[in-house]
Specification:
With 471 residues, this protein is α/β, with parallel strands linked by helices. It is built from 15 helices and 21 strands. It has helices at residues 41-59, 63-79, 81-91, 96-119, 148-162, 175-187, 202-211, 224-235, 259-270, 291-301, 323-338, 373-376, 392-400, 415-423, 456-461, and strands at 2-4, 7-9, 12-14, 21-26, 31-37, 123-126, 129-135, 138-142, 165-169, 195-197, 215-221, 240-244, 250-253, 283-287, 342-345, 363-366, 383-389, 407-411, 429-432, 450-451, 464-470. The strands form five sheets. It has a seven-stranded mixed sheet, sandwiched between helices. A six-stranded mixed sheet has the order 10-9-8-11-12-20, sandwiched between helices. A three-stranded mixed sheet has the order 1-5-4, covered by helices on one side. The longest helix has 24 residues, at 96-119. The termini are far apart.
Amino acid sequence: MRIIDRVYIDGSFVEPHGEQWAPLFNPATEEQIGKVRLADEEDANRAVAAARRAFPAFSNTSKEERITMLKRLHAAVSERAGDLVEAMRVEYAAPPSFIDFAARRAGNVFLDMAEILESYDFRRRIGRADVEMRPSGVAVAITPWNSNYSFICGKLSTAIASGSTMVIKPSEMSAIQTQVITECLHEADLSKGVFNIVTGYGNVVGAALTANRDVSKITFTGSTVTGRAIAQMAATTMKRVTMELGGKSPSIILDDADLQVAVPQVLAAGFLNSGQACIAGSRILVPEYRRDEIEARLKEEVKVFTLGDPGDSEVRIGPMVSQKQWDRVQGYLRLGQEEGATLLIGGEGRPEGLERGWFVRPTIFSGVRNDMRIAREEIFGPVLCVLSYRDEEEAIAIANDTDYGLQANVFSSDLERAKRAADRIEAGRVIINGAPHEPLAPFGGFKQSGFGREFGVFGLEAFLEPRAVIS
């Protein structure tokens, strides 16, 4: 049983003022594997005070000093990649390929931001004005459970690069992962108060951080419902906010696509991180005249997406994070059938041979209309919907007929045609033919998928305020 009874404030692991405890589970076995003592409002305010004290000196560090810090952070995190993998395996049980990617990315984001800093100009002459990009102040990062240390490192790397200090509130469901990554970051030996990490409930610690008048910037990744509440509270003190929220991403298979190539990629996009991903391609748009052919291929190809404990390298879909999330997904599986959709494969209940763990049968619904709730609401599980279209014009209309606009996928044998389609899609990112991750490209959403951008130059400037001196 892992007992986590410290938070990280002002450069030290300290006992929290909060006295409430939360259990920690292994989703693949449903066994309790630990518990975490949670921070409270007093801890949140202590962390902000530490970040505020550190800000004057840290905001005046040079670009070269920050690059050196980022490289130290990369080294400290990379050195314990194996421990990060193990922590995510036992506490979140994501598929092995996702865990490996997340562990590598946690360290690499610091190098990515160091690369951006190398060529970034904080001072510019514009007309008669000297313009300086200044750090925004004390920033708060509120991160979710579905890629814990990737989000922590991604947001912290940008704060460090900008010269802002930070308080991080991770999900209480990821406390073991948080403990390991905090130990890594501590080893980088940054000045006290530059970053602080307090694990607690969103309605307690998150609310206190959002309300604190000494906080200038909030970066949040999570649900649209929670993001909306944070944005409303932040507006009372005019905090700058970056919101990366929900998604219902379309995967458009154009009529000239090579199905042998496209179908495996479509399923990989849909089942990414066991479907517990805001960017998951959960709506599959197919040409009407090829629907039967595509659905037959989907039904056959889905069989290679094996479920089980992430200790097995062949596993491609893990369990849901909690009993609550499992129940939620089961509710959508029932709802889809009630709405008139047809189960192509999967459905309610546990997968065969898995009597323990919060596993969901990989499910594909056929005959889905875009006005059905299963096509419009974020399910956050391995549940995909097939929608048919008559021509490309209708495909684009269906893809854009959503409250969300985080990411989209286009598959075609003609790259230029795919790019033309991408130009018409209302989403912050469009991936063509399963293109690999580009860490320096901006990431964020249109519509109710949020506002602001992360990563690269766009992410850095979200933590900066321009000041003009005119002479």
